[in-house]
């Protein structure tokens, strides 16, 4: 369960990444925990408790590792956290390079579910498809594209350009209504 939980949580940075603007969004966190619980196949509160325990254990082990490497004693080897072999994802950084994975005694066989989760996390994310061109108002896009340039102008120049645009639009509409 622990490896699956780590992988599932790593795909939901809103749970652990305090630098995100959405980190304090309670609704997003609740939704993320519901997704994690569904992936892990355990109740949400159990996933939260186990994650807190794993996170606390990791922080303690990382601290021990840093202290061991700082002491300068050649005989001290850094402690080994048993879940370090879980592959880090782009969303979950934090594995310390001085922490070495334990020597594997036997290869662990991943279930089909775990393989699917790992493939989903490792697959590059694709951006959402662009809005259909028919739903884009070309006139609105054009006038919005002028905004940055207009903001750089003095108030007097802005008023002059606005007046000229109004005059051109008025003249064009008058000509089209005469025809």
Automatic annotation (TrEMBL):
Top-level division of the source organism's lineage: Eukaryota
Main localization (coarse): nucleus
Domain MADF: 4-95
PROSITE patterns: BESS (PS51031), MADF (PS51029)
GO CC annotation, single: nucleus
Compartments in which it is found: Nucleus
Domain BESS span(s) in chain numbering: 136-175
InterPro entries, per database record: BESS_motif (IPR004210), MADF-dom (IPR006578), TF_Adf1 (IPR039353)
Keyword Ligase among UniProt keywords: no
One Pfam short name: MADF_DNA_bdg
Keywords: Nucleus
Region Disordered, annotated ranges: 64-87
Keyword flag Nucleus: yes
PANTHER family given in the database record: MADF DOMAIN TRANSCRIPTION FACTOR, MADF DOMAIN-CONTAINING PROTEIN
Protein name (record): Transcription factor Adf-1-like
Classification lineage: Eukaryota, Metazoa, Chordata, Craniata, Vertebrata
